[in-house]
Amino acid sequence: HPPTHPLTHPHPLYLKPIFGKALTLPPSSPAIAPDPLHELRVEGLTYRYPGSGGISDISFTLKAGSLTVITGRVGAGKTTLLRVLLGLLPRQSGFLYWNGQPILDPANFLVPPRAAYTPQIPQLFSASLRENLLLGLGDTVGQEQLDRAIAAAVFDRDLATMPEGLETLIGTRGFRLSGGQKQRAAAARMLLRQPALMVFDDLSSALDVETEQRLWQQLFNPSTHPPLPPTCLVVSHRPAVLHRADQILLLEAGRMKSVAS
User: Fold this and answer.
1) Is residue 2 in a domain?
2) Which residues of the chain have pLDDT under 70?
3) Which domain range does residue 167 map to?
4) What is the DSSP annotation of 67-96?
């Protein structure tokens, strides 16, 4: 028999640019009522790929306002850990808790305004830079807020060199932007959504040292995130972010090798 309730609902974030207006959709049912992040606890998170690889029995805690960096060699399971935590891959065992309450469906729960994710290769679309940054927010974002997010993502200098500014067409998958520009445009898009938890997969991999240092300095500037400081979970091996970290998780072959703070 078909399920009584649909298992998924379309989201206006994705449909609005297609149909030109927000659609009336059934209300979503989050696992718990939204509240500010005080603590995210991960216990025994496990996911194994068929054959080999994955993560096993990963546990750690994120405190509000902290920067946690996941590091390790290529193939250690860093990206897999992020994807399992966010529900992009199904956990085979383990538990997640938001302020002590269990997260039953992380893919539905850990979305803006609770959490937002920027992968190493961000998804950009064949549209203007403005449309890529707003992506469904429409008129809810003022120019001042947009400018602030662009500056915080250290994209303002790049934008100043573009004759069309925010109306610049960036091409399929953003091919007219450099790798570093794509990453910072995606960071600005994330900041516009003001998530309680920001998750970055190797955000600064395509940046030079000076730009990277400016980026992390701006991201943790109190004026960027009024009234609360950001909580960040970052995959990186770069010194600029490791030196700022409140907590460093070292993965080796899919397991937690050490936790340093």
Assistant:
1) no
2) 1-34, 222-228
3) 36-260
4) EEEEEESTTSSHHHHHHHHTTSS--SEEEE
